[in-house]
Amino acid sequence: MAEAAQDRRGSLPAEEGAGRHRRVIERHSIDWVPLSERHGRVSSLGAIWFVGSLNLTGFATGVVTLSMGASLMWTVVATVLGSLFGTFFMAFHSAQGPQLGLPQLVQSRPQFGYIGAAVTVWVFALVNYIGYNTSDALLSGDAMNTLFSIPNWLGYVASAAIATAIALFGYDWIHAVNKWLTWPFAVIMAVISGAVLFAGELPAGVWDPGPFDLTSFMLVFIFVAGFQLGWAPYVSDYSRYLRPDIPVRRTFWWTYLPSAISGIWVFVLGAVVSAAAPAGTTPVAALKLAADRLAAGFGVIAIAALLVGLLSIMAINQYGGSLTMISIVDSFRPVTPTRTIRVVTIGVMLVTVGSIANFVGVEHFNWFYANVVVILTYLFIPWTAINLVDYFFVRKGQYVVREIFNPHGIYGRWGWRGNLAYLFGLAAMMPFMVIAGLYTGPIAAALDGVDYSLFVGLPVAGGLYLLFARGLDLATERRMVQEEGLLAPRH
């Protein structure tokens, strides 16, 4: 079988992969991408993750951080540190894509089991997509209302229609759109930043650090780190077509630096704009106000530019949400990956997100978004630790691809190691959690509301999984990997 697999899907010459980059409707979904279809340059990840944060949602993230109680200076410091920390884990997930050629969440089956992954990790991932896309819907509707004076719901429908077209075409189009947007966005962001810093009419003394408050500092740190960590459940979806001989370090850095830099840039910009805006101003209105101070009418240009960036990320969220729904269904009833099922699942996402956004309303955006990001952060901290420990320290990138799609295979239906480590990790975090206005854990309350849950969940979940994994028969699994011959040798 190994020889047949190599003949059918063996490694390509260096020049062949790039020639297969055709912008047609993608036919793959949750299935493995054969080596004969791998293409693209690792530098393309830079465009995806640089543009990924340069949009209204990224800007609104910065606006929300300033409402958490810290001064502008300490908010900026916490933002920089939180972004650098959260992006570190997200970038290592990105490095899994070229090696395995699989969507991110399918890679959770070896840790959580065929059914276990579907009812735990994938459900949380679907909530992740719905939560972020609802936030995107609220902002896109508000932006379209500001630009064209149309109802918010109609603005969302128009925005979602454009994003849907990109999502339906899939992987190559998502990469292409973000590549086209990179340099125009860098220029427009520089101009907006200049407007905010030099014509923004910031209050006197706004940059005075003031007293350091660890409680509010950690709220910002967790929130920003969580935003960056929120990419983790689907980051390798956009690297899975790359050739497997690309070193992990290159995939890591082409993800880490663009995402961290653009994230810090837009988060800080949002915080500074919020400092100059009247209390209660929506993120879209605050941006328009700040940009118009540079030149009359520039606010419309700024909103339009970040709205275009938002359409790109809405496409990514719709695409990822579609893959997640297909993965969940496939765990209970085998699904043949087709374009039709992607159309159906994207349609389900549109209706669900639109309904929730209409219920929440843009006036409650800050409250909704802040709690969504924090809760999702808590849910994915144990998962990211388990998934990365398994990939880099336990199995070291060697998985039997056909067994990942076998409900009765070696990875089992319920992976007790992953699920137990996850539950213990989440339980260990709960006393340290702080969800503003909803829940404060007893240990966090004793520590004056300081949230240390991130630093508890990562080592507990990852350490326990590493301990539980000592009983795995890795020698047999590696023989099966070699016999299958679908993965490139580790380098």
Automatic annotation (TrEMBL):
Q: Where is the composition biased (Basic and acidic residues)?
A: 1-10
Give the location in the cell: Membrane
Which Pfam families is this protein grouped with? Transp_cyt_pur
Q: Which UniProt keywords apply?
A: Membrane, Transmembrane, Transmembrane helix, Transport
Does this UniProt record's set of keywords contain Cytoplasm? no
The record's principal subcellular location, in a coarse class, is: membrane
Positions of transmembrane segments? 45-66, 72-92, 112-133, 153-174, 181-200, 212-232, 253-276, 296-319, 340-361, 367-393, 420-440, 452-472
Q: What membrane topology is annotated for this entry?
A: Multi-pass membrane protein
The question of whether Transmembrane helix is a record keyword is answered with yes
Give the top-rank taxon of the lineage listed in the UniProt record for this protein.
Answer: Bacteria
Residue segments, region Disordered: 1-20
| Similarity annotation | Belongs to the purine-cytosine permease (2.A.39) family.
What name does UniProt use for this protein? Purine-cytosine permease family protein
